[in-house]
Amino acid sequence: MVFKKQHNAYTKGPLALLVQLSRMAKAKSFPLDKDDFLTESKGQVAGLGGSNLKKILADHSIVQILASEGGRTSRGNIGLMQEYVSFLNDWDAGGGIDLDDAEDFWAEQVRQYFRNQPFVLSADASKTVAASLDDLFDQARKRQKQNPGTQYLGTVLQHLVGAKLALIMPAETFGIHGASVADSPTDRSGDFVLGSTIIHCTTAPGEPLIQKCRSNIQADCLPVIITIFDRVRTALDLASDVGLGGRVEVWDIQQFLSTNISEHSLFDGSARNMTIAEIVGCYNDIIDLYETDPSLCIEFEAKQSLTTAELVSLLRSLPLTKVSVEGATNNETGYSSHPHCHSEPRRGIFGHAVSNGRSGGPSTCGRPLARPRIPRQARDDSGV
Fold it and tell me: Can you give the pLDDT at residue 149?
């Protein structure tokens, strides 16, 4: 919608206001009077509230909390309300106004807002790396449940493995591919081929995967399955049932990453977050290169003081490009918030975004200060 773009209505404050105004306008007569939407003091937009917003979004099967105050305290709401009322009046004067359509549109923008939010990986001294990863994977599960047909969890798992491998393996020794790219069209025997070791990433081990492992073994290769913790037993039992017990390695992703993080941090807790930041930075670059959904990015929130020596070491690891360090307050670690690349979406008849793989509107994706090493061969294979 032109209105959305003109008034930068991409964030939760404007969205909370506009979806509620669309509902309130249904109970009023046209032409709408802007003063009817103000409180008696004229200092706020009337009728806005968290419970009201929650009810409207629930009518559209949206259960997430967009704004606890319902946008009531957001700055600029009065001006935006006045502009939207004028827009609705112009629409009505031109004929064919449909407030149900307007409400549906803004509800869809709310869904898009939630879909575009990066996952958050928090790290603090009170939790293990595995526990923090569990929280991350829970976010992916919830988003996957809210968006049927998507595979957020599996995609996050595969690209975290790819990021870790890219940081520890020599350059150009293996390929990285989009999570939706099947093995057979690319002549791959697994998700990652490392010499005679074949790595398969999955959240749901099944018979087809075990048959791939059998083919790996017949080719004198070692198959390794990396999955989520509660599916490790499933994978082991499936392998045993077809006579492959003891011939297929099965690792859970939490231990795979946390063990590597501890090793590369030299078991120094103060260096742990720097190692995690490097992995997350590499992961985000993989998302940039091989996926079309920027919401797959991970924002790393670390609460840990950096010594001067650690900060210097971190900065020296960066490529020679301009870097903005934001959010470092009260001696807490401040990883950069790097604006994620977004292309402007195509527009439908009502002006709504038509999916083209990326979402429109301003957004940011947390990008740790790190220098990833993505295998060049991976880019060649994907055509990037």
Answer: 77
φ/ψ of 193, rounded to 5, equals: -110, 110
Q: Are 236 and 250 in contact (CB under 8 A)?
A: yes
Torsion (CA) 284, 272, 132, 252 in degrees, nearest 10: 80
What is the rounded distance in angstroms from the CA atom of residue 47 to the CA atom of residue 70?
9
pLDDT confidence of residue 306: 55
State the Cα–Cα distance between residues 241 and 210, nearest whole angstrom.
Answer: 10
- Where are the extended beta strands (E) located within the chain? 119-123, 192-194, 197-201, 222-227, 249-252, 298-302, 337-339, 346-347, 353-354, 364-366
Residue 123 pairs in a beta bridge with: 302
In angstroms, the CA 290 to CA 284 distance is 10
Domain ranges of the chain: 2-115, 119-382
What is the pLDDT, as a whole number, of residue 243?
Answer: 95
* Cα angle value 31/33/34 (rounded, 5°): 130
101, amino acid identity = D
302 bridge partner residues: 123
Tokens 């996957």 map to which residue? Answer: 144
Question: Is pLDDT above 80 for 329?
Answer: no
At 288, phi and psi to the nearest 5? Answer: -55, -40
Distances (CA, A) of 46 to 26, 36, 43, 77: 15, 8, 9, 11
Residues contacting 165, CB < 8 A, separation 6+: 174, 192, 194, 199
CA distance 64 to 110: 10
Question: pLDDT tens digit string along 72-128?
Answer: 666 678 899 999 999 999 999 988 789 999 999 999 888 888 877 788 898 777 888
Q: Which two three-digit tokens encode residue 45?
A: 């937009």
Cα radius of gyration rounded to whole Å, the chain? 25
Position 115 scores a pLDDT of 76
